[in-house]
Design goal:
This protein folds into 2 domains: 2-175, HUPs (Rossmann fold, 3-Layer(aba) Sandwich); 188-280, Pantoate--beta-alanine Ligase, Chain: A,domain 2, CATH 3.30.1300.10. 38% of the residues lie in helices and 19% in strands. Helix 7 crosses helix 8 (153-165) and helix 10 (203-213) packs antiparallel against helix 11. The chain is built from 11 helices and 9 strands. The strands form 2 sheets. The chain has a 6-stranded parallel beta sheet with strand order 1-4-3-2-5-6, with helices on both faces. The chain has 289 residues and is α/β, with parallel strands linked by helices. The structure holds pantoate. Residues 28-30, 58, 61, 130, 133-134, 152, 155 line the site of pantoate.
């Protein structure tokens, strides 16, 4: 595995590979890697000749300085894991490389409701930061394909929207959420859970499955309230449990839409967990791998 810290060196290397006709797949990450990230790497390897992974803890997407400071940083372990899993190129840029003083990196794109609902309501500015860094990384790496996880539903939906609106020459592939055996969605934040909170954490998955099973039997309102209460009783402080249209991310009141998903965010102690599940998917939805 080759590791680069500067844009110039990375691009020089990738230009050589591109001139040999190799296709480039890209997995952007913030490090603290786990099997969920490795499933993105494996998907990338299935579709592309070269797998490029970036690790950059992007300050512009954190609206809480405590979260930014405590975000786990283990670059040595991460690099070992990536090398063991056959990654070709690791990009480990500094903040200056990503956001040079003389470069305008803010993306001028109105996300409308996509960034105000769910995560957007509780993390103002977060998705502008995500869009800014992903656009900058795409401009640097210029991959053929981009791989993101389903776990961040709103994130991949917004990046898909950006790719379409700006007509970026990259194909987005979304990789299904990887779960622990008890159903807890893998996340870098899981390692901060206390043993007690780790025990209750799978309740989130159980609630999502309940919503899926009962989509036709119960009203949307009943399902949302039931799941919020169930999480609260178990010891979480839920922020939202929403059933929404998968394209617009707007809450729905009846299960008539063709593409329906449920998403939740809940605090387990001082760790904020998110998860989602597709409850109904339209024919021909070919984002997922
Ligand atoms: O999902 C993440 O880890 C981050 O939001 C991403 C896509 C790497 C952008 O910083």
């Amino acid at each position: 595995m080759k590791t680069f810290q500067t844009v110039a060196e990375l691009q020089n290397h990738l230009d050589q590979l591109k001139s040999q006709g190799k296709s480039i797949g890209f997995v952007p990450t913030m490090g603290a890697l786990h099997s969920g990230h490795i499933s993105l790497v494996k998907a990338c390897q299935r579709y592309c000749d070269i797998t490029v992974v970036s690790i950059f803890v992007n300050p512009t997407q954190f609206n809480n300085s405590h979260d930014l400071e405590t975000y786990p940083r283990i670059p040595k372990e991460d690099a070992e894991l990536l090398a063991q899993n056959g990654v070709d190129v690791l990009f480990l840029p500094s903040e200056q490389e990503i956001y040079p003083k003389d470069l305008e990196t803010v993306v001028n794109l109105d996300l409308g409701n996509l960034e105000t609902v769910m995560e957007g309501e509780f993390r103002p500015g977060h998705f502008q930061g995500v869009m800014q860094v992903v656009k900058r990384l795409l401009d640097i790496v210029r991959p053929d394909q981009l791989f993101m996880g389903q776990k961040d539903f709103q994130q991949f939906t917004i990046i898909h929207f950006m790719i379409e609106k700006l007509q970026l020459p990259v194909k987005l592939r979304v990789v299904k959420t990887k779960r622990e055996e008890d159903g807890l969605a893998m996340s870098s934040r899981n390692r901060r859970l206390t043993p007690e909170n780790r025990k209750i954490a799978p309740e989130i998955y159980k609630c999502l499955k309940y919503a899926k099973r009962n989509l036709k039997q119960k009203s949307i309102h009943e399902l949302e309230n039931y799941c919020i209460e169930r999480l609260r009783k178990k010891g979480f402080e839920p922020e939202y449990f929403t059933i929404f249209d998968g394209n617009t991310l707007m809450p729905i009141t009846t299960p008539n839409d063709a593409y329906i998903a449920a998403a939740t965010a809940a605090w387990a102690g001082d760790v904020r967990l998110i998860d989602n599940m597709i409850l109904k998917s339209p024919r021909g939805l070919n984002l997922f791998v």
